[in-house]
Automatic annotation (TrEMBL):
Primary gene name: zwf
Molecular functions (GO terms): glucose-6-phosphate dehydrogenase activity; NADP binding
One family name in Pfam for this protein: G6PD_C
Swiss-Prot/TrEMBL GO biological process terms: glucose metabolic process; pentose-phosphate shunt, oxidative branch
Biological function: Catalyzes the oxidation of glucose 6-phosphate to 6-phosphogluconolactone.
Domain (Glucose-6-phosphate dehydrogenase NAD-binding) ranges: 10-191
Catalysed conversion reaction: D-glucose 6-phosphate + NADP(+) = 6-phospho-D-glucono-1,5-lactone + NADPH + H(+)
Gene Ontology CC annotations of this record: cytosol
Protein name: Glucose-6-phosphate 1-dehydrogenase
Source organism (scientific name): Cohnella pontilimi
Amino acid sequence: LTAHEAVYFIFGATGDLARRKLFPALYSLYREGKLGERFAVVGVARRPRTETQFRDDLHQSIQEFCRYKPGEAGEWTAFAEHFSYHSLDIGNVDGFRELKSLTERLETRFDIPGNRLFYLALAPELFGTVSHNLRDGGMLESPGWHRLVIEKPFGYDYPSAEKLNEEICRVFREDEVFRIDHYLGKEMVQNIQMIRFANAFFEPLWNNKHIANVQITLSETVGVEERGAYYNKSGALRDMVQNHMLQMLTMIAMEPPSRLDPEDVRDEKVKVLRSVRKFASPDEVRKNIVRGQYSKGTVRDKELKGYREEDSVDPESVTETFFAARVFVDNFRWAGVPFYVRTGKRLPVKSTEIVVEFKNVPGNVLFARRQDLLPNLLVIRVNPMEGIYIKINAKRPGNETTIQPVAMEFCQSCQIGINTPEAYERLIYDAVHGDHTYFTRWDELAAAWQLIDPIAAAWREHAIEPALYPAGSWGPAQTEKLLHEDGFHWWPVN
Ligand code: BG6
């Protein structure tokens, strides 16, 4: 494989994403031999920075955030040698021409065949400008491949996403574009396919005859932190639901693809999104969706601010920091099965879990009216613990015939010596190898926005404001009601 012989351009190289995720990911890939030696990384940002300063930043970021620590001096220098910095005003094409000469020198020096990967860790408003200037500055004229990796938010709604996409598509083909959703890079999200399609005992039961409901929780303990300005415009709906939550839902609900090829997998995911029932009226939105915002609260004797008191947040903000919904996938497999999703900031735990609740055995004479008979569960633990467990019913040891639920567990994060790669490592690696499986295709993104827009419109046009919940709680009381109405409850998250 020679695909990884490339120059990686990190636009926004002095920003948070580069520091926390991208540099550490590149270092881990390097340490595992996945980058080889024929590569170069060019950090691009507006701020002037000397090569030495840039490499110092790099060292610090790896020291702080990488699962490998910078090794002994020789090895570190060898890695850092591959890094250069180029200060650039991205609105000015001349800088791109200079970047072109720098790139050609690096390609000669490291014997790289002209492959170029442009990672835009930038505000999306700049994607169009950068794409055009890459082309006009001659950066796309090398003999190898050219790929664009971009981060969310991809627009604010369907029309803005479409506009953004058109701008990018004037320069890059769809197969050259890699839209990151870092949840798709998570080990256990990718594992959903294996669990479902490689096991004789799940797939035959994976439908409305045997599954009572599915619960997807993505809870965070952090508040909005220093991202108030961004978050206040986006809210949980655009920050988490439009992307991460819907991605997990599609992975659970999709039909088995005919092959595990990227396009086959993505075709199936688009079909799920198209089958999700739209919230057609404000009443449906009110009935099926909970919109919440954290107010002040106390967690372990610590006073936490309410959302409206956070920095850069409008004191009258009606932005939601919590979202819960009852969603239906109207196809043959899932008709009638509710998918409950919830996500929020300032909740009691940091945890992402997917619970598949199976229907009970027939209420026959054997176990009729038994209070101790709980449903079987399959729980996929995504984050921060990784693993899977199933809850089954067994006999409690002793003379009485009491049933007790027991867990059969595979705890991936407990296995000694498993140091699972970070989402960004896997995604950068895939992008460089041209594998689109875990990236969002345009039609997938479009379908996701088409589900989100009517919700946002109903909130906006019918003044549906968020219900307050104290920081450190599980969201507004209505969240429990959603499930109680259907005779279910949220299974506790670990
Ligand atoms: C990001 C959101 O996409 O995902 C953040 O913008 C959120 O608001 C983060 O905190 C959660 O990711 P993870 O991997 O920490 O669960």
